User: Fold this.
Amino acid sequence: MTSPNDDETPRSFEELIRRLPKVELHLHLEGTLEPEMAFALAERNGVRLRFPTVETLRSAYAFRDLQSFLDLYYESIAVLRTERDFYQLTRAYLERAAGEHIRHAELFFDPQSHTRRGVPFGTVIEGIHQALVEGESDLGITTRLIMCFLRDLSYKEAAAALREALPYREWLIGVGLDSAELGHPPSAFTAVFAAARAQGLRVVAHAGEEGPPEYIWEALDLLGAERIDHGVRCLEDPALVSRLAAEHVPLTVCPLSNLHLRVVASLEDHPLRSLLEAGLCATINSDDPAYFGGYLTDNFLAIARALRLTRAEVVTLVRNSYQAAFIDEPRRRQLEDELITALRSMP
Ligand code: HPA
Ligand code: ZN
Assistant:
C-alpha cells in the first residue's frame, strides 16, 4: 500500500509539496484572472460585467464541461484592454507563483481572444513580456511564452495570428492549440503549425482532454507536437500509450481542471497513477487556476491526497516537469540542485 503516512506525517508531506521547487507547463494567463481583478479592470476600463458582485461572478464558476467554462472565460476576458492590464495580470500570477516556489513557468496566452475584440496583438504581448522580464530579474522565475491558436476559429484566422506574432518572434518559445476540442481536430491546423516550426517555434497542443485518442495521434503526426496538454484519454489506446512512452512525449496533466470540467468524476478516479505506471512523463499543472479552485500547489496537494501519492511519486512528477520544460541543460541542473537541497532540508 502506498501512502505518505507510511513514513511521515501528512503535515510534513504537505510542507514538502509546498517547498519543492516546482515548474508549471500548462497555465493560461487569461485563466489566472481572479474575480477581484476582473471587477477592478472592468471599472477602470468602463466595461460592464453581467454579474453585480465578485461573489456572484465566483458563484458562476460551476461548469458542466469544457464549453461551459470557455463561455465564461471568453466573457471575462473582455475586461483586459490595455498593456497595463496584461502587465498586471501577468505580474499577479508571477508573484503568486514565487510564493509557491514555482521556479520556472511556461505560459499560454490566447491572442485571438483579444485581437477579435479590437485589442492589438502588440498591446497584449508587450504587457505580458514586460512582466516576464521583471519577474525574472526580481522574483528569479524563468519563463517562456507560448501563443495558442483557438481551434474553434478557422485555419485562416490562426495563420493571421501567426503573421501578427512574427515581429515578436523572439519573445515566444512556441505555439499551442486550445479552446473547444470536440469537433475541432488538430488536422485542420497542419499548415500553420508547419509554418510555426519553420520559424523555429516549439510545438505543443491540447489533445485528449475531451477529444478522442485520434486527436493525440494527429497532434503528434500532423502538428509535430513535442508535448501533449492534458492527454489523459491516451489510456484508451494502448498503441498510443506505447508511442508516447517510447518517444518520451510529456503530458501536462491538470487534476483540478479535469475535476471541474468533469473529465473525471472525482479526483479519486483520476488516471494520473495509471499514466505514471505506463511509463509516461506526466506532469502536474494548473490550467486556469482562477476558475478551477486552485493554483499549482493546490493541484499537487489535492491529487496527492486523493490518490495517496508517495513522496517518491511526487518527486517523480516534479522531476518530469524539469525534463519536459523547454529549458537548457544548465537551467535543468540548477533546478535539480534546488530540488536536492529542498529534499535534504525536509526530514
Ligand atoms: N482547455 C482548452 N482550452 C482552454 C482551456 C482548457 O482547459 N483553458 C483555456 N483555454
Ligand atoms: Zn489548457
